[in-house]
């Protein structure tokens, strides 16, 4: 071997290893999730809010089965996107529904404003403007996780436009602040979100959402969140996330479940332990939080026209863990409580 070649070999070996290292670190996506593939075409609703021009990404999927003339709106959770509804969109479209799955402002394919006053009322207003632009006057609304809080607020704000309300492991079935969880400032949330990583997301979701279980298909959603956070929009994504966490913690809907006017379905995976701020709560407070096997039953008693369906042993996202079982329960209830039958 020549001396010149021996000098080049270490560098060549390093270059050969780079693609492997880059892959191990996972993908990076743009500030509106550019580069990540959604299951259906993403469109953008352009509107003005709080003096800013914003874009709200959404999927509008026509009925692929025999159309039933009805629409359903899917509201994603904090660590989720419209894309994570993929199996639900398919199931509901095949059942005859037009399906609208927006990404809320601050999330996923939507704008990340430099400054925004996040309230559930504001997000509900944004969504109502989107539906109005699409010509949808009434719909059934399905909310998951944080989307369950938003769907509740939407139903309270626009009761005449919501035919049925379904909540999938919604957070906000309890008031964490009132139960003793310490307050985190927006700055503290921001510092926390800046450190977000794929490993951290995976560990949290495995332990909190899925009771220690994990399916390989969940890794796609971990990469989605981590790739959005570490991409070129890193600081904007983290800042908006911090503002959204403050909204979640300080704006409970728990006290207004009693005011819901429409048929409401609670779909609850009983192994879920999600509770905002439980990581900084005292052991005594933490022990009281996130017991979905109890919370579902308690809140079902507060909602006037409620139906409770529990999925024993499933966690925070039963629609992703056992989609066939979940969608059968959901569609059976939607047909049973159909207001236009």
Automatic annotation (TrEMBL):
A Gene Ontology cellular-component term: membrane
SUPFAM superfamilies: alpha/beta-Hydrolases
This protein's UniProt keywords: Signal
Single GO MF descriptor: monoacylglycerol lipase activity
TM regions (residue ranges): none
InterPro entries, sorted: AB_hydrolase_1, AB_hydrolase_fold, AB_hydrolase_sf, Epox_hydrolase-like
Pfam families for this protein: Abhydrolase_1
Domain AB hydrolase-1 stretches: 72-323
Name of the protein described by the UniProt record: Pimeloyl-ACP methyl ester carboxylesterase
Organism: Pseudomonas arsenicoxydans
Organism ancestry: Bacteria, Pseudomonadati, Pseudomonadota, Gammaproteobacteria, Pseudomonadales
């Amino acid at each position: 071997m020549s001396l010149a070649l021996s000098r080049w070999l270490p560098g060549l070996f390093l270059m050969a290893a780079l693609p492997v290292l880059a892959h191990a670190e996972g993908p990076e996506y743009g500030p509106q999730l550019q580069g990540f593939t959604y299951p259906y075409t993403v469109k953008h609703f352009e509107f003005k809010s709080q003096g800013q021009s914003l874009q709200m990404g959404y999927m509008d999927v026509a009925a692929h089965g025999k159309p039933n003339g009805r629409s359903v709106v899917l509201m994603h959770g904090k660590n989720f996107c419209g894309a994570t509804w993929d199996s639900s969109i398919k199931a509901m479209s095949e059942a005859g529904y037009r399906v609208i799955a927006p990404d809320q402002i601050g999330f996923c394919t939507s704008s990340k404003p430099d400054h925004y006053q996040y309230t559930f009322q504001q997000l509900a207003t944004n969504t109502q403007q989107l539906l109005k632009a699409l010509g949808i006057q009434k719909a059934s609304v399905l909310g998951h996780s944080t989307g369950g809080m938003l769907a509740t607020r939407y139903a309270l704000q626009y009761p005449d436009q919501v035919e049925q309300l379904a909540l999938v492991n919604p957070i906000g079935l309890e008031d964490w602040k009132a139960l003793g969880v310490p307050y985190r400032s927006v700055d503290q949330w921001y510092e926390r979100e800046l450190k977000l990583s794929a490993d951290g997301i995976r560990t949290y979701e495995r332990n909190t959402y899925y009771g220690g279980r994990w399916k390989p298909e969940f890794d796609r959603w971990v990469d989605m969140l981590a790739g959005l956070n570490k991409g070129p929009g890193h600081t904007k994504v983290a800042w908006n996330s911090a503002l959204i966490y403050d909204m979640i913690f300080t704006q409970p809907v728990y006290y207004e479940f009693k005011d819901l006017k429409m048929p409401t379905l609670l779909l609850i995976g009983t192994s879920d332990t999600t509770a905002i701020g439980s990581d900084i709560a005292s052991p005594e407070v933490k022990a009281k939080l996130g017991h979905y096997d109890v919370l579902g039953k308690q809140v079902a008693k507060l909602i006037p026209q409620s139906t409770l369906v529990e999925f024993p042993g499933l966690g925070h996202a039963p629609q992703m863990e056992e989609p066939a079982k979940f969608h059968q329960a959901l569609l059976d209830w939607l047909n049973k409580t159909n207001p236009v039958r």
